[in-house]
Each structure stands twice: as C-alpha cells, then as structure tokens.
Amino acid sequence: MIEVNNLVKRYGDHTAVDHLSFKIEKGKIYGFLGPNGAGKSTTMNMITGYIASTEGTVTIDGHDILDEPEEAKKCIGYLPEMPPLYFDMTVGEYMSFVADLKKIPKNQKKSMVEEVMEMVKITDMKNRLIKNLSKGYRQRVGLAQAILGYPEVIILDEPTVGLDPKQIIEIRDLIKSLKKKHTVILSSHILSEVSAVCDYVLIISHGKLVASDTPENLGKLAEGSNTLNLLVKGDKDHIRIALGQISDIKDIKIEDAKEEHAWNVMLSTKEDMDIREEVFFKMADAHCPILEMQSKKVSLEEIFLELTEDDKKKKNEKETDKKEGENK
Question: Taking every annotated instance into account, which residue ranges of this chain make up the domain ABC transporter (predicted)?
C-alpha cells in the first residue's frame, strides 16, 4: 500500500530523517513510535506530501507522492498533530467544506458527512462554532475530516491528545474498527495505546528505523525479554549447580537478598519457555526452598527505551570517534 524508500530530510546541517525505508500493508494498524525529535512528524509530513524529501521516494498505491500528488493524496486521510480547523466555521459547515475539497459527489455528501460525524460522536456539536469547542472535541472534528471520503490510508499524528480517559477509549475503539476498511498509521507517545491498538510497530530514533515488528515479537528483541525472578533460601553454590542442569536457562544471576540466608536469583530463558515447574522441582531436590517466584514480561515501554537508548549510545560513540579523528 505504501512504500518508503531511502527517505532523507535535511534542514541545513541537521538530518531529521536518515535513509528511512519501510513498507505498509493493507488492512493493518501500524504504530509509529519515537522520542521527541526522532523524526516521526517529519516522516508523516513527507508521506502525505506536506513537505518534500531531500532524498528518497514515497509511493502510495503505486503513485509517487511528488510526481503524482493528486492521485496519491486521494488515497490518504491525514490528522496532523495540530488539526487543520477553521475556528469561525460551525462543525457542520467545516465538514461540508472538507467534503467539497475531497470532491465527494453531491448525492453522497450529506449522508457521508452525517455518518462520519456520528462515528466520531460530534453530531450534537453540528451547529457549534469550532472556536467554542473543547480541545477534545476539536480533536474529534480533526479525526472526522481525516475519515471523510473513506480513504484507503488514514494517518493519525497523536490522535488522542487532549481527550479525557473515556474519550480515549472511544477513539481507540474507533481506530480498531477502521482497519476493517482502511490501513491506519498511528503516531503516539502513549505506548500503552500502541500496545492496545496496533498490529505492527515501527520504532524510530534519530531519524532511523531501529525496530519493526509485531508488539509480541518486539519483546524478543529486548534483553531479558524472558526472565524469571526468584527469592531462594539455601547455599549459593547448590542453587547455581541445580539450576545449571536446566537446559532452557541461558543465564543465571545470583545476588545477596535482604533476607538472611536468601538469594535474589534472575534467570534468563529461551524464547517462549515456561520453566517454573522445572525450577520448582530442582530447588526442592536441592533442599533450597523458593520464597518468591515472579515471571517478568517486558513491556513496550521497556523495549522502546532500550532500543532508543542503544541507538543514542551508538550515535554518541560515532560522534566521539569523529571528533577524535579530527583532533588527530
């Protein structure tokens, strides 16, 4: 549906997007993640044709966004971080205006506007001036204009900003329902939102793609993605020897615990392995009672921080090496 190849955006000496490439398939919800300044909004602006790239191409349903802008943009509905609203219009006037811009046929216009307004729950605001709406309702109007015309791709930049918890749940449910007919790209700083809504996650840092996979598979990229934490009483060497007999354990760390004669034990295991039962029996055979046992699942927040932090370290190391080379 969308192909981004070797995309670069430079502002003077600053590279906001650095040779970015990825593909977006039909009928899925993609989460676009990255810290502030990572290049998310810049990438979205280039995909939608709002700004031009320095290098690289963006193809939407076979149409290059720069060579065939009108054909490519027909496939896109876009909600930028700041919704493109006219404050002196009523909600109804604005939706009618957007329908005309999108060249929706006159015989479909009224019914489609009403349908979309009902979908995002702004029908009651139809005759209100946009400038008199709360931030949450303005966000809903922005979302409505993106959906209007039912484009194949809907791109949402921070769609739940300014919404209360109830509204956030409603918008999340709406976004989930959109994938029945649309491909959705969602940029968000709220990682729990991405975990709850998205089928696939792209993580960007310093303008580069550092990871792309399903939320479940991303967990396997993180260190300690499968860990078992124990509080065990007994001899340290006996504990290590007994646990060393379990073939699915990749790493064993044993540290002093606050409790007397007890040890904090952290076990790293192979992917998708549940070793709790085997650990229990090994410790029982070694007469080392388990006082606590806790499986740890890595959250998307931890994966995000680990991947973006690693990329930051690599960038700093390159800059240090470059400076050292220049000094020599």
Answer: 2-231
Model confidence over 162-213: pLDDT tens digits? Answer: 778 888 888 888 888 888 888 999 987 777 778 788 999 888 888 888 888 8
Diameter of the chain measured on Cα atoms: 81
As a whole number of angstroms, the distance between CA 159 and CA 142 comes to: 9
CB neighbours of residue 106 within 10 Å: 8
> Per the structure block, which two tokens stand in for 124?
């009651």
Give me the phi and psi of 35, to 5 degrees please.
Answer: -65, 170
DSSP H helical ranges for the chain: 40-47, 69-73, 91-101, 106-119, 135-147, 165-178, 191-197, 215-221, 236-243, 276-285, 300-327
Q: Is 46 exposed, middle or buried (0-12, 13-18, 19+ CB in 10 A)?
A: buried
pTM of this prediction? 0.71
Compute CA 298 distance to the chain's CA centroid, rounded to the nearest angstrom: 15
| Residue extents of the structural domains in the chain | 2-221, 226-297
Q: Residue 124 and residue 180: Cα distance in Å, rounded?
A: 26
Single-letter code of the amino acid located at 77: G
Task: Tell me which CATH homologous superfamily contains domain 226-297.
Answer: ACT domain (3.30.70.260)
- CA gap 280, 283 in Å, rounded: 5
Which of 209, 308, 201 lies closest to 7, judged by CA?
209
Cβ-based neighbour number of residue 258 at 10 Å: 7
Q: Are 263 and 256 in contact (CB under 8 A)?
A: yes
Which among 307, 289, 138 has a CA at the least distance from the CA of 210? 307
Per-residue confidence (pLDDT) for residue 167, from 0 to 100 = 81
224-235: b (≥16 Cβ within 10 Å) or e: ebbbbebbbbbe
DSSP string, 174-221: HHHHHTTT-EEEEE-S-HHHHHHH-SEEEEEETTEEEEEE-HHHHHHH
Q: What is 2-221's CATH number?
A: 3.40.50.300
Which pLDDT value is given to residue 291? 94
Q: Which two tokens stand for residue 96?
A: 């009618």
